[in-house]
Design brief:
- With about 180 residues, this protein is mainly α.
- About 85% of the residues lie in helices and about 0% in strands.
- It has 6 helices and no strands.
- Helix 2 packs across helix 6 and helix 4 crosses helix 6.
- It starts with a helix and ends in a 9-residue tail after the last helix.
- The relative contact order is 0.17.
- The mean pLDDT is about 85.
Length: about 180
């Protein structure tokens, strides 16, 4: 059941299912991302609090407790106001896209880059900067678009995994290896 082709097949089927849900209901997907962020913040608060009490010095205790409190507040805010949290996450992704895009464009002008590599750096950098611009101008639509793109990516990734699983099964069968058990 847990052989390589079976594990790949199940993971890929799950990716397709998640992708279909994300494309069909992007608002639910955005809500799920907000809840995942809240869970992450609560987990961060718990681990920071544990670090605070495992230290033997006073300075780190205060810092870890402050971080734990900030994470706890972020988790509560995410659950209490999911709309503003989705907006903030979208803007954060836009800031990340802007920073990485600018860095990629800058990397294109390093010495020693081949023309094809330089063009690829510039192209991917400009795509990231364009994404950032779109997310900054319309973060409300940007969040729905991100959920839809995530869904489409998951579907394509899942189909690719299903194909790889089928091919791996054929290879195992052709080389006389044991046929994977059950699906």
């Amino acid at each position: 059941m847990l052989s390589s082709p079976n594990a790949l097949l199940w993971r890929s089927l799950l990716a397709v299912a998640v992708g279909v849900v994300a494309v069909a209901w992007p608002d639910i997907t955005i809500g799920a991302f907000v809840i995942l962020f809240a869970v992450y913040a609560f987990m961060g608060a718990a681990t920071d609090a544990m670090r605070a009490f495992s230290s033997d010095r006073v300075g780190p205790v205060f810092g870890w407790l402050l971080l734990a409190l900030l994470s706890l507040v972020a988790g509560v805010v995410a659950l209490a106001w999911p709309g503003i949290t989705a907006l903030a996450l979208t803007i954060w992704i836009g800031a990340y896209a802007l920073a990485t895009g600018a860095l990629e464009v800058g990397l294109a002008f390093r010495r020693g880059e081949k023309p094809g590599e330089r063009a690829l750096f510039i192209l991917t950098g400009l795509v990231s900067i364009t994404l950032a611009f779109v997310l900054f101008v319309r973060p409300d639509i940007g969040a729905v678009s991100l959920a839809s793109v995530f869904g489409l990516f998951s579907i394509v990734y899942g189909i690719g995994g299903i194909t790889a699983s089928v091919q791996e099964r054929r290879v195992l069968k052709d080389v006389g290896g044991a046929e994977p058990v059950g699906v």
